[in-house]
Amino acid sequence: MPGFIADNDFRKGIATAVILVALVLIVYSQCGNFELVTYDDTSYVTDNERVMQGVSAENVSWAFSSFQLSNYHPLTVVSHMIDTSLFGDSAGARHLVSVFLHLVNVLLLFFFLLKATSGLEEGGLVPSFFVAALFAVHPVHVESVAWVSERKDVLCTFFWLLSMISWLDWVKSKKMSSYALTFFFTGMGILAKPMVVTLPAVLLLLDFWPLGRIDLKKNPVAKFIKLAIEKLPLVLLSVLSSVLTFMAQKGGGAMQSSESFPLGLRFSNALVSWCSYLRELVFPLDLAVFYPYPQDIAIWKPVSAALFIIAVSVVCIRYIKNAPFVAVGWFWYVGTLVPVIGLVQVGDQAMADRYAYIPFIGLYMATCFGVACLVKKGCIPAKFAVSAGVVVVLVLLAGAYTQAGYWQNSESLYERALSVTENNHHMHYNYANLLERKNESGKAAQHFRAAIKADPSHYKAMTNLANIYSKRGELVSAMELYHRALQVNPDYSTAYANRGIVNHKQGKLDEALRDYKKALELAPRLADSMVNMGILYYMRGENSAARAMFRKALDIDPDNKAARKNLSLVQ
Fold it and tell me: Lowest mean pLDDT: which of 68-72, 205-209, 503-507, 527-531?
């Protein structure tokens, strides 16, 4: 009979896993037909020469020895290289790899909870299933799965969950091999995305519940300290990752200054964001790939948010004996958001859906195991709880399916973001660039102007709008915008290079030459500026100087047709 029961439980677990697989595929199988988007996918993948070469010893060494786009996540970069080696330039295949990783994460989370909570009154198959199901289909997680650039989210979570599983085995068996695996998986997760730095703290929470390693009645402080010391090797990995991340983001210019983002505004936005994510948890509507940073925040918002966070935390601690899963889930959520909440501001987003991929797991646990506890106590009928849970999952599934559809291409993604946000300079700028590449310069100009209106310091939008004016022959308007762009950023080589073209058109050869030289001083590999300088020298009768510039341009870009054609004319 015991064997029969175990076999029956196994069958239930497999059947439940099949349902979870179906939920993921219903939402995300459409991603196999999606394109890569021009928002970061080009930088991470298609324009990254190393990635597009595929896996090689040299490329893997480069991934581990350099920073990419102000980040250090070499394992993620290598995963993109593997995609190239296996699937070439197939965008759909890259998407499906991320979908597969998300699916595996859903199953790992389910089986971890199933094993970790077995024997607990509130534990078991049903709450474990609903936690995994919410994780599988919540619309907020679409960004992490459907955006190839966010491969790092699903990849680091894969190693995060493997670390939790090996930690569970360590707690039960005390095998050093299990601890070693936890250390290894933590390190691999950090190499995929530094957000894993909070994992040691989460393992400490799991020690409390569901692992029950801290007894509040028997000297809990001493036990807590002992368990914290147990995790010191993992903490050292987190410290090393934090140092590397700081170096990457500081060196790459992604870390914002206190002048651009004052500390008071950062704290206010962080507090409001903690609560805004909770709103997205309950009402995942109007989701966008980019949320503009507010210029100011009314004081009542961060104060209210702080009071709410404190109140919930106090309640969790007050009832920690009766509902430890609620406390663990809440502090999982609050703690894992710390690295990305914006106290150290990286980029110019107010918040991001992708940042909730790991934190929301804590809230799913608190909710589902909380409901299971109420069912066990007779406070809620079991059939009602399950029925309500099924309805919630189906509603979220429909929302996630719709949200994923916006990621089919850049145009639909940007249009959606602009329809649900205001003053979104980032999306106006990206959409304008896309429209310009499609030769829709009129619409592009409208969105460049909107980007500048939303952010008067957007020197790249000014420069690109000036380029459109230049092509139209509106040279005075173009020059005005180039001047404005260079006032904001005097080291922007593209503005000098293009202003030089306008001066060139106007016959102001000396001014044009100064601009070309300045552009090359700032960016020595601008082959087009070398070609333009060569043409200018040729116009002035300086043929030897012209030939030298054309040859230099060809050294940098052997396929530059303008350089080759002009060199043949000067020979």
Answer: 68-72
Nearest Cα residue to 105 out of 168, 149, 153: 153
Q: How many CB atoms lie within 10 A of CB 406?
A: 21
**Mean pLDDT across 39-57:** 95
CA separation for the pair 350, 346 (Å, rounded): 10
Q: Residues with Cβ < 8 Å from 528, sequence gap 6 or more?
A: 497, 553, 560, 562
d(CA 123, CA 373): 8
pLDDT beyond 90 at 478: yes
Hey, what amino acid is at 163?
S
Residue with tokens 């028997």: 218
Largest CA distance in the chain: 99
Task: State the average pLDDT over residues 413-427.
Answer: 97
Structural contact between residues 534 and 549, judged by C-beta atoms closer than 8 angstroms: yes
Mean pLDDT throughout 39-45?
A: 93
How far apart are alpha carbons 156 and 236 in whole angstroms? 18
- 247 CA to centre of own chain: 19
| pLDDT value of position 397 | 98
Burial class (CB in 10 A: 0-12, 13-18, 19+), 402: middle
State yes or no: pLDDT of 466 exceeds 80: yes
Place of tokens 């060139």: 504
Catalogue the long-range contacts made by 114-118 (C-beta closer than 8 Å, 24 or more residues apart).
114/13, 115/168, 116/168, 116/206, 116/210, 116/211, 117/210, 117/369
Integer-rounded Cα radius of gyration of the chain: 27
pLDDT in tens, 310-348: 999 999 999 999 999 999 999 999 999 999 998 887 778
Residue 68 φ then ψ, to 5°: -125, 125
Phi (first) and psi of residue 71, to 5 degrees: -135, 155
Integer Cα distance of 304 and 302 in angstroms: 5
Could you tell me the two tokens for 276?
A: 């805004």
Burial classification of residue 217, based on how many CB atoms lie within 10 Å of its CB (0-12 exposed, 13-18 middle, 19 or more buried): exposed
* Percent share of the chain, pLDDT over 90: 87
| Closest C-alpha among 86, 68, 88, 87 to residue 77 | 68
The neighbour count for residue 192, using CB atoms within 10 Å, is: 26
Helices (H), 406-440: 410-420, 425-437
* Partners of 349 in beta bridges: 292
